[in-house]
Amino acid sequence: MTVFTLDALGPDANRKTWRRGTLSARFGRALWIVPVVLALAVTTFYPTVFLLGLAFSKSTLGKPFRGFVGIKHFATVLQDPVFLSAIGRSVAYAFSTSLLQLAFGFLIALLFTSLLKGGRFLTSLVLLPLMTPPVMVGIAWKLIFAPAGGLLNGTLINAGMISQPIWFLGHPLFAWLAIAVADLWQWTPFIVILCFAALSTIPEGVREAALVDGANGWQRFWHITLPLVAAPLSSIYLLKLILSLKLFDLVYILTFGGPGFATTSAGFSIYRRAIEQFDVGRAAAETIIYALVIGLATLPVVRLHQHFERREL
Amino acid sequence: MRLVPRHLWLSLATAPIVGFFALPFLYLLAVSLKTKDDVLNGHFWPTAPTLANWPAAFEAANILGFIVNSVIVSLLAGSLTIALTLPSAYAMLRLKIGGRWLSDVTLSSYMAPPIVALIPLFFLLKASGLLDTRTGLVLIYGFANVPVAFWLLTPFLRRMPIEIEQAAAIDGAGPLRILLQIVVPIIAPGIVATFIIVTMLAYNEFLFASAFTFSDATRTLPVGISLFQGDRLVNFGQMAAASLAGIAPVYLIALFMQRYLVSGLAHGAVK
Asked: How many angstroms separate the CA atoms of A180 and A186, rounded?
């Protein structure tokens, strides 16, 4: 008796064979997915349960689970304006920079598509920022924005536009802009590659038909190209949103959350609470609240994505 | 007549974009060749280029040791991720084991930020005696990148013509044999691309590495470099040299494997 059936290989009878199969046969089938289930257990299920346990108990990094404290940690977190504004900043940052990067990346991809052969080469070239370790990205941009000897200050001074160097990373707004620029530099290439791929799935015939019908460049873009890539664009946006909500490395290297708490992202805040202050009970409650906020905030995008996916079918 | 100016116009638009993306590399390179005084004058290129920063950076911190740790950890973690993901992805897609539910859970688990797992994994590693070990990092990265590998591998599996597998099944080959002898060779480019990407993710990872390692014997390169810049004797030239040394291995791979990489990333998104 064959234990497995290939999808679409056999008639339904075949599938029934394994359903009625021996216990060992079923066990053999289950073995296939053990690796992924194990990975999910270690990286997702166990952390969730463990975090819940920590969030409701008196816990430090050295001594976890010292007594039940109810919702005390959650109450503390929800009354902590510093952390709540860190969440707000993280979410606002993720939504705005992802949208900006999607627009920028899509435009570059359109440009590269028009360049034909050269575009393919350039697409490979822009791979490099994506592969650069985020820590090194942070350092490169930190050198550019540095007050003494930084490229930006040097250029502005030599051009006579400022007389004294500006400490960009010490200014709340400029510091965020610096993080956004470094982020844009690192991740736009990824969006370019994905948009380039999405654009290359549009059949040449569609464009030609529109040309024959006398559609101008803007009409072709608005009525033909954009609707055809709406579904992939929404999934690219969702993906970048998820990545942006994980913001940590660039904050750590460029600003370490400062000046003050101005650029402290939710992730960075939780990290410091747990690793520097050892207050893992409160950090766990913060993590759970942040995860809930992410789930709620990304829900509209997930829905939008599903809407486009369905329309495609 | 109109084609030439249009092309020229497009090329003109491309130049600043390429310039923007090249800027940080070129500046790192330029700074790594500058003396301390030269850094302060604020010009792009060094006035009197020197190579002195390079050996100095390797002496100031255990850069070579960090690179070795990173390379070992990322290669083993990448292999582990592929070994875990490939059979399961194949089973979910072709053998219909676990079904759509497991596939959805695997993909959506990637949505949670890694900070969620930070504290629990810290205690898990501590309990198993793997805190501050390379083995611990290999296991964490190997597991954590499974959703990414799954996302990248499934389009390749899905696009494989099922007839070949059916023919092999009729000839009496079992599923494991079909996977290893027929599927793997055909989707090898996809596996290579996925392996490179998950290995690179492990090489670049910073959050877990900074929390789970505390000695020079285990620290990976991003952590080592981040400490470098924490030192108050910040020397821009050395920092730039150390950063470039750490980027070099990834770029070498990227240059040789770019074809695989672009297609591997692109297939995942478009389906």
From this structure: 10
Residue A15: CB partners within 8 Å, gap ≥ 6?
A5
> Taking the CB of residue A276, how many other CB atoms lie within 10 A of it?
9
What sign does the CA torsion over A251, A254, A256, A259 have?
A: negative
As a whole number of angstroms, the distance between CA A156 and CA B195 comes to 44
Task: State both tokens at A43.
Answer: 């990286």
In whole angstroms, give the CA distance from residue A199 to residue A188: 16
Share of chain B above pLDDT 90, in %: 28
Cα separation of B216 and B170, whole Å? Answer: 55
A36–chain B Cβ distance below 8 A for any pair: yes
Name residues 50-109 of chain A within 8 A of B (Cβ).
50-51, 54, 61, 64, 108
How many C-alpha atoms does B39 have within 13 Å on its Cβ side?
A: 24
Q: Please determine, for residue A5, whether its predicted confidence score (pLDDT) is greater than 50.
A: no
**Residue A241 predicted with pLDDT over 50:** yes
- Residue A152 touches chain B, beta carbons under 8 Å: no
List, in order of start, the domains of chain A with CATH numbers. 79-312 (1.10.3720.10)
Give the separation between CA A187 and CA A102, rounded to whole angstroms: 10
Cβ pair A112, A119 in contact under 8 A: yes
* Structure confidence at residue B230 (pLDDT): 58
Q: Is B25 on the interface with A (CB under 8 A)?
A: yes
How far from the centroid of its chain's Cα atoms is residue A57's Cα?
31
Fill in the amino acid letter for A217: G
pLDDT at residue number B146 = 93
CA distances from B79 to A148, A286, B73, B142, B185 (A): 44, 34, 10, 8, 17
Concatenated DSSP letters for B20-33?
HHHHHHHHHHHHHT
| Interchain pair B115, A196: CB under 8 A | no
CB atoms within 10 A of CB A155: 15
B-chain residues near A271 (CB < 8 A): 115, 118, 207, 211
Query: How far is CA B212 from its chain centroid?
Result: 19
Within 10 Å of residue B113's Cβ, how many Cβ atoms?
A: 24
DSSP bridge partners of A57: A68
- Rounded to whole angstroms, how far apart are CA atoms A175 and A147? 12
DSSP letter (8 states) at residue A168: G
CA pair distance B210, A133, nearest whole angstrom:
14
Is A298 in contact with A238 (CB distance < 8 Å)? yes
Quick one: CA dihedral B251, B257, B263, B264, positive or negative? negative
CB count, 10 Å around CB of B252? Answer: 10
Q: Tell me: the pLDDT tens digits for B167-191?
A: 888 888 888 888 888 888 888 888 9
Its ipTM equals 0.87
The full set of domains in chain B, from first to last, is 1-50 (no CATH), 57-270 (1.10.3720.10)
Mutate to test the interface with B, among A107, A125, A131 (most CBs of B within 10 A): A131
Output b/e per residue, B60-89; b: 16+ Cβ within 10 A: bbebebbbebbeebbebbbebbbebbbbbb
Give the residue from B222, B218, B261 showing the smallest Cα distance to B73. B218
Question: Tens of pLDDT along A159-193?
Answer: 888 888 888 888 889 999 999 999 999 999 889 88
